[in-house]
Amino acid sequence: MLVRPGLNYCGQHLVEEPDADKSYQRKRIPCPLDPKHSCFEDNLEHHIVKCNAREMTNLPYMKHNINQRADIKEEPIKTPLSALSDQELLAFIAKVEKAHQDHVGPIEESILHHSALDEEMKTPGYGQSVIRHLDQNSSLLGHLDQCGFLDTKSKSTCYVEFGAGRGQLTHWLTESVTDTRKALFVLVDRGSQRYKFDAKLKYREELSLCRIRVDIQHLDLNSIEGIESYNSIVGVGKHLCGGATDLTLYCLSKLRDPSVSGLALALCCHHRCTWSSYVGVVFLQECGFSPEEFYTLTSFTSWATCNSRDVGSKEEKQVAVEEENDLANADKEGNTEDKCAVENRYTRLGLSAEYREEVGRKAKQIIDYGRLKFLQGCGFKSRLVKYVTKEITLENIALIAEA
Q1: 165: which DSSP letter?
Q2: What share of residues in the chain are helix, strand, coil (percent, to 5)?
Q3: Which of 119, 154, 230, 240 has the fewest Cβ atoms within 10 angstroms?
Q4: 121 and 133 in contact (C-beta within 8 Å)?
Q5: DSSP codes joined into one string, 307-364
Q6: Can you give the pTM of this predicted structure?
Q7: Which residue has the higher pLDDT, 362 or 199?
């Protein structure tokens, strides 16, 4: 956006314009619904009515908290790692090691690709970040193809992308299915950002495309218009953040007609998982983890990425920074130890950065294995795979399931 003469900021950031500048009379303020953008103060009432961040109600597919666990009355207390004694910290690490060895074990590397992205990946001028995302999409599509989920000629299919964002994965799905005329593509995201790939898709007249703006915890797939005319449902998601994965699994498990053929979800941001939404509580309890220890486990997951910012795309490096900041904030709430004191503690206990990273990965995999067990309880054949290398992304685990 352009900056008007006499001003220091464009229209989007006029909220930062100093009051001393009288050259522009209309004052901008942060939108109360979403402070990431601003609006004119004298136009606030009108803006709220049409703002894309406003809460959507009375939608046929929206049922309040339909995908939240009904058996949870209250969240357990979050205890920061700095509040644990040395003995408690070492004992919990041993508990994670044992649970991983007894139940999870090594995760198979299964890096696939799909020919639909071959030409795109040869495009000159693409940077490493773009190539990384294409590699991830290619492998996910390869797993969908391996399971037979891209064959729409024999079975009409509705593909639901959870946490769709810009819609990039759906874009490549439309290039990969055998017959787009027998497919419905549903994009679900709670955000109101502009969708880059939707612009490419809307000009293809043969596509049946539906974008839904709703939080997954309120989404009732059975109520989406036209979904009942398809033979099966396939759920997909790339880097589905934290608890959104669990809400997605609940959402898919409640679908009755048509049935769910399977799913492929690339997992991430385990530090944002919540006890009230997590699907693998039965498995964790079998491993001896109490509700209060759940958030200690999620705190450990930050160790897997905080020491590896030189690896991965810009977005994944940002996740590592975000995880470390969340952990640091939690530590400040429970203890006044600074970062230097924490590092000294780890050195004193012989917990190197490399070892903590390994423990963090195991904590992530324990959480993911609980999700796998949930799907098995729902009748799915499920597996965890390393769908790309760690050099492509630190969050390189995908959950694959077939009915």
Answers
A1: T
A2: 45, 15, 40
A3: 119
A4: no
A5: T-TTSS-HHHHHHHHHHHHHHHHHHHHH----HHHHHHHHHHTT--HHHHHHHHHHHH
A6: 0.83
A7: 362
